[in-house]
Every structure is written in C-alpha cells, then in structure tokens.
C-alpha cells in the first residue's frame, strides 16, 4: 500500500468514526424527543448540532477527495465551523441548564452570568478565527488555516471538555452529599478517570501541534499527517466526550426524577 492509499484509509477510518457518532447522536435525539421524559431544550439542541456537524464533516471529506468543487467545499467548510462551534456552545448551555434543573434554581443565560459570557466570547473568537483564516487567499492560505484551525480546536477541546468535566464533577459531588445511596460513586469515578484521559489527550495533541512547526508542511506526507492529528482527531474527541458527558447527565437526571420528582423544573 503506497503512502497516499494509507492516508486515504486513515481518512475513511475517521469518517467511519464520525458516522458512528453521528448516528448515535441522531438515535439518542429521536429517543429524547419521543420516549424520554427527562429532556430539556439545550440537550435536544446539542444532539441536533452534533448530528449536523458529523454530517457536514462527512460531506466535506467526500467533496475534498472525490470532487473538484471549490465553491461546494467552501460552503461545507463554513457549515462545519458554524455547526461545531454551535455544538460547543449548546454543550456548555446543556451543562448549566442541567445544573439548574438538578439544584432547582432558575438559569438565565447572559444575565449576570460571567461564566456563560466568557464561554460565548471564547467560542466566538475561535470560530471567527477559523472562518477568517479559511478565507485568506494567499499562497500560504492552506497553512494559515491549518495552524489557526488546529489551535482553535485544541483550545475548544481543552476548555470545553476540561471545564465540562470539572463542572459535572462538582454537580455530582454536591448531589452525592445529599444522597445516601451509592448511585453517584460510579459517575464520580468515571469523571475522575476521564480527567486523566483528557490530560493525556491534551498533551498528545499539543505535542503534535508543536511538532508541526518542526517539519515542512509543503510535503504531502507531513501535511496529511498533522491535518489528522491536529484537525480531525481533536474534533472527534470533542464530539465523543461531549456525547459521553451528555449520557452521564441524562442518567443522573433520570435518577433524580425517580428519587425526587420535584426536580423537574425546566424539563420539556
């Protein structure tokens, strides 16, 4: 198998992983809409945007390798950026809304909520950087987008998943302090293990990003290699773990509804 065939195989492996994640998000969305009583707005919005992101990314992969349609590629790339940033925002919103429902307080986004405002600002900045760098039309434009997109995805991955994991862990700890059962022991262990995994993944992606400065991206081998390590890989990690965290929140929500039915304010 030659070099190009190897990278095409890796690309299709990434596409297959995205397809599985997208189908899973779509199935969970359907279940939430029609069979789940513990649904809330941002949870549904998040799964819709995950499905849209994975579908757009899959189309981008197919367009990039099988069609010479630059206009179509530009449109799909913009959709990927918009959907992925919307997915990140809705995931944060989902955590904050989940917190408000479990602890029975009213969550008002953008109203004296510093955390939410910082989240919006961070996602807007990274999203705008991705969009602007993509449409820089110079001889170095592919590399400008590569570096800006890579650092944006790295920041989003560490900030979104790191903060999300920390916030969910704090919620679980507070809920467990008022619960006499062992239900929250397993979720807390999962969160602690996930923090370790995210640290390792973060170090790996950061080292890959730094290593990309030490090679010539003019060579197809290095460009394709680091496009996967610094581009598709962080995106897959963001989608996978955000879906994973959403599942944990759903399990906790169902448990809270069983042991304490009044915890339903804010549910659809």
The H/E string reads HHHHHHH
Fraction of residues in β-strands: under 5%
Within the CATH hierarchy, at the fold level, what is the topology? Answer: Rhopdopsin 7-helix transmembrane proteins
Radius of gyration over C-alpha positions, nearest whole angstrom:
20 Å
What's the CATH architecture? Up-down Bundle
- Unreliable segments of 5+ consecutive residues: none
Anisotropy-based shape: elongated
The number of helical elements comes to 7
Question: Can you summarize the main beta sheet?
Answer: none
Distance between the termini: 53 Å
Please give the share of residues in helix: over 70%
Q: What does the average pLDDT come to?
A: 84
Number of domains: 1
* Total strand segments: 0
Q: What is the CATH homology-level superfamily?
A: Rhodopsin 7-helix transmembrane proteins
Task: Characterise the protein shown here.
This protein is mainly α and 268 residues long. It has one domain: Rhopdopsin 7-helix transmembrane proteins (Up-down Bundle). Helices cover 81% and strands 0% of the residues. It has 7 helices and no strands. Helix 4 runs antiparallel to helix 5 and helix 5 runs parallel beside helix 7. The longest helix has 40 residues. The model has no long low-confidence stretch (mean pLDDT 84).
């Amino acid at each position: 198998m030659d070099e190009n065939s190897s990278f095409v195989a890796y690309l299709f492996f990434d596409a297959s992983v995205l397809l599985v994640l997208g189908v899973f998000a779509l199935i969970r969305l359907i279940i939430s809409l029609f069979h789940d009583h513990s649904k809330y707005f941002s949870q549904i919005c998040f799964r819709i945007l995950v499905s849209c992101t994975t579908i757009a990314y899959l189309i981008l992969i197919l367009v990039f390798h099988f069609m010479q349609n630059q206009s179509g590629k530009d449109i799909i790339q913009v959709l990927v950026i918009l959907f992925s940033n919307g997915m990140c925002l809705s995931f944060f919103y989902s955590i904050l809304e989940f917190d408000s429902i479990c602890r029975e307080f009213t969550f008002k986004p953008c109203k004296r909520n510093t955390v939410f405002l910082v989240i919006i600002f961070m996602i807007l900045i990274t999203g705008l950087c991705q969009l602007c760098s993509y449409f820089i039309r110079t001889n170095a434009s592919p590399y400008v987008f590569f570096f800006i997109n890579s650092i944006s995805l790295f920041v989003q991955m560490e900030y979104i998943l790191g903060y999300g994991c920390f916030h969910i862990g704090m919620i679980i700890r507070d809920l467990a302090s008022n619960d006499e059962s062992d239900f929250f022991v397993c979720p807390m262990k999962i969160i602690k293990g996930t923090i370790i995994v995210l640290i390792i993944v973060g170090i790996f992606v950061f080292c890959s990003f730094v290593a990309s400065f030490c090679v010539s991206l003019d060579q197809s081998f290095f460009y394709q290699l680091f496009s996967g390590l610094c581009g598709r890989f962080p995106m897959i990690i963001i989608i996978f773990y955000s879906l994973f965290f959403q599942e944990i929140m759903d399990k906790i929500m169902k448990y809270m509804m069983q042991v304490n039915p009044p915890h339903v304010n804010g549910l659809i």
